[in-house]
């Protein structure tokens, strides 16, 4: 029988030290908790609050994906018979004007995104409560919906689109921070992958709004958006965030967790080498922008946004010009891109956690290059529009794969800047930089695409966009991921996924190391050294 030491040393992911566990006889002062506190503060509700927020903001934005040319045509009085788009010729007859005005309308969204990102990035790192900024974002989104619904002039559309960009800057930054606040870094790939999967899901649900537009009038899609925004607003109001709620509300949960752990003691050397407490370091904008790993991740985000926003006005015009599609038809065919993207976001997030971000980024970029190029091939002369469907499916998968590595990369850069401590300072700034990069792409994409579509055609536009992915491959290889190794397996994630303890005999005599995966620990290492004598 191996004798046991009188204490057990635990290596905890959060690097906090607890000298003793509260005894079962300790008196815990009962605090009156809010209604349904257990559910409103749970991780499940936190995730769904972030997910619904992201879904709603994307739904509101995606409504204009196929409808922008038709809305511009109606406002400009180019299309007198705008209620029946199957007979409309305004888009094709005035291709240059419609393309230009649609590009400007889409770009105003990016301007709002760029304007709001630094503000909400600073706010996210200054205050830890995410609810209030998200309420402001949802309110701005509802105001934008009202403007779209009631607009009678082109400038009103531009103001509404700008407000929509500001709203999404807030929602994206705060939703990403909400997830990062509640999950450890080695699980962020999966959680962010699931969360970002609601982006194409919102696009997928929002795109059929073209059916509402064609059949029920131009107000119908925006009324649907208002209903979703009201649900989103309600979830924001009832969520309870641990970071901003009184600590005594969570005492029972903390006591329960502590009683499940052993008493923790640490040697003096461990105390001296422990990381800095949270809040002692301040991560600045300059520090973040000096990191090549972050810059390359932001550049990849800008490229993805450029390509997606370039297709936003031009794909609808291509379908209308070549095959006479109306708003409903344009909405439905783009679902071939959105549905695979939802699944791919989750899968690619899991792959990033398991095998590293480099291999996911490189494979996705290699496949995205031909996928983007082939979108320009189908035409009325070359065959049916059905040829677009498999190409759009591949495009949705590869675009999701290009975006998936960005969030784990951001988290690792912030962790490095915080010296490996538990501090998340700089995280909101990083996510606001992500929003800004996305906004740059959203601004550049439609403006360039509108001009190129009218001057050199859709095929050459697709060719130029595909070269962006191809040229980025070397940068992804050298700067994304940990070192030059293509595949880096995450041992901590693998241990957690097995859901069982591993006993490993070390090379040192009479020492056993037990790896016990816990939901809130990366790895819990229990060392049981031999005693000089046994009972």
TrEMBL record:
Chief location bin: membrane
Highest taxon, organism lineage: Eukaryota
Domain Major facilitator superfamily (MFS) profile positions: 46-484
Matches recorded under Pfam families: MFS_1
Membrane spanning residue stretches: 44-64, 104-123, 135-156, 162-183, 195-214, 294-311, 323-352, 359-377, 383-402, 433-452, 458-480
Protein name in the entry: Major facilitator superfamily domain-containing protein
Single Gene Ontology MF annotation: transmembrane transporter activity
Cellular component per GO, a single term: membrane
Entry's localization field: Membrane
Keywords: Membrane, Transmembrane, Transmembrane helix, Transport
């Amino acid at each position: 029988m191996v004798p046991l030491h009188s204490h057990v040393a635990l290596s905890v992911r959060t690097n906090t030290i607890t000298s003793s566990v509260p005894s079962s006889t300790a008196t815990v002062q009962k605090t009156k908790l809010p209604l349904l506190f257990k559910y409103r503060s749970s991780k499940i509700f936190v995730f769904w609050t972030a997910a619904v927020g992201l879904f709603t903001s994307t739904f509101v934005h995606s409504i204009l994906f196929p409808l922008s040319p038709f809305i511009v045509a109606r406002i400009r009085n180019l299309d007198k018979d705008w209620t029946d788009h199957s007979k409309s010729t305004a888009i094709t007859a005035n291709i240059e004007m419609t393309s230009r005005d649609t590009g400007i309308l889409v770009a105003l969204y990016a301007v709002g995104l760029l304007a709001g990102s630094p503000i909400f990035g600073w706010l996210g790192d200054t205050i830890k409560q995410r609810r209030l900024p998200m309420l402001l974002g949802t309110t701005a989104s509802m105001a934008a919906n009202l403007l779209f619904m009631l607009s009678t002039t082109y400038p009103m559309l531009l103001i509404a689109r700008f407000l929509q960009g500001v709203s999404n800057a807030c929602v994206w930054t705060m939703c990403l921070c909400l997830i990062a606040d509640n999950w450890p870094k080695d699980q962020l790939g999966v959680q962010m992958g699931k969360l970002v999967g609601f982006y194409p899901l919102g696009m997928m649900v929002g795109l059929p709004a073209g059916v509402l537009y064609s059949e029920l009038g131009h107000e119908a899609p925006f009324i649907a958006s208002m209903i979703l925004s009201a649900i989103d607003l309600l979830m924001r109001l009832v969520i309870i965030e641990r970071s901003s709620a009184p600590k005594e509300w969570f005492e029972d949960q903390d006591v329960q967790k502590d009683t499940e752990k052993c008493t923790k003691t640490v040697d003096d050397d461990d105390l001296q080498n422990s990381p800095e407490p949270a809040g002692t370091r301040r991560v600045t904008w300059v520090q973040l922008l000096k990191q090549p790993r972050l810059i390359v991740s932001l550049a990849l985000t800008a490229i993805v946004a450029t390509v997606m926003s370039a297709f936003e006005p031009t794909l609808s015009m291509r379908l209308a010009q070549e095959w006479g599609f109306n708003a409903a038809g344009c909405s439905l065919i783009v679902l071939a891109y959105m549905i695979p993207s939802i699944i791919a976001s989750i899968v690619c997030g899991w792959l990033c956690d398991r095998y590293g971000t480099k291999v996911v980024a490189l494979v996705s970029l290699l496949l995205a290059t031909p996928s983007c190029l082939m979108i320009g091939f189908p035409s009325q002369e070359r065959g049916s529009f059905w040829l677009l469907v498999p190409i759009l499916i591949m495009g949705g998968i590869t675009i999701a794969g290009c975006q998936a590595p960005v969030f784990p990369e951001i988290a690792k850069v912030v962790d490095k800047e915080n010296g490996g401590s538990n501090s998340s300072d700089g995280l909101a700034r990083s996510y606001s930089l992500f929003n800004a990069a996305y906004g740059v792409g959203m601004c550049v994409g439609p403006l360039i695409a509108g001009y190129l579509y009218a001057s050199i055609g859709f095929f050459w536009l697709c060719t130029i966009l595909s070269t962006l992915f191809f040229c980025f491959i070397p940068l992804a290889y050298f700067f994304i991921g940990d070192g030059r190794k293509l595949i880096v397996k995450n041992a901590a994630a693998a241990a957690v996924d097995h859901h069982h303890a591993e006993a490993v005999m070390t090379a040192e005599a009479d020492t056993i190391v037990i790896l016990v995966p816990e939901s809130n620990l990366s790895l819990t290492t229990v060392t049981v050294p031999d005693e000089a004598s046994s009972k």
